[in-house]
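Example record

The entry below shows one chain as it appears in the dataset: sequence first, then structure tokens.
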Amino acid sequence: MVDKSIKATTGRIVLATIDNEFVVKRLKLEPENNRVLFLSSNSEYKPIVVDFDGENNWDENVIWGVVTSAISIF
């Protein structure tokens, strides 16, 4: 479940679109570096870095909300 009313802060798992693709990643805000990192739980995947600059298209990079729960069916 994703809750849009919860503030997306460092350490939270978020649902986001990055380059128009959905991802579920742990969020790391770096305002001192003008960027956001989306971290994977799997160490084989590199962080996705989104810069806060004038070239960033926020129509393609959007945090939809904070993940509050997940259901797995096997």
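Notes for this example: The chain has a mean pLDDT of 89. The two ends are 18 Å apart (CA to CA).
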